Amino acid sequence: MKTVVRAATASRILGIPQQELRIGIQRGRFGFGSADKNKGCQRLHYTVNLYKAASELGIPLEEMEKRWGEMMGE
User: Fold this and answer.
1) β-strands 44-49, 4-6 pairing
2) What's the pLDDT tens digit per position in 41-70?
3) Organism's domain of life (predicted)?
4) What does the CA dihedral 21, 26, 63, 67 come to, rounded to 10 degrees?
């Protein structure tokens, strides 16, 4: 399982709507992600650490890995 993923992938694995996840990261509600701007770009790019997210949201690692496998078709 990858450790750091984009917001769209993380929202499917965590069961959180994408917009809620993005806003939560922007406002500091979720400490397991970051929102960064690349040079010359106005849009934010979101990344989420799945292990930190599992810990903060109280999801067992086994469950997180199971969700990852289901999403990837394993």
Assistant:
1) antiparallel
2) 889 999 999 999 999 999 999 999 999 999
3) Bacteria
4) 50
Give φ, ψ of 51 to 5 degrees: -70, -40
Rg (CA), the chain: 12
Give the separation between CA 14 and CA 60, rounded to whole angstroms. Answer: 11
Phi and psi for 42 in degrees, rounded to 5? Answer: -85, -20
Residue 2: φ, ψ to 5°: -70, 150
Total Cβ atoms within 10 A of residue 64: 19
Q: How far apart are CA 17 and CA 15, in angstroms?
A: 7
Q: So where are the chain's domains?
A: 4-72
How many Å apart are CA 10 and CA 25, to the nearest integer? 12
pTM of the model: 0.84
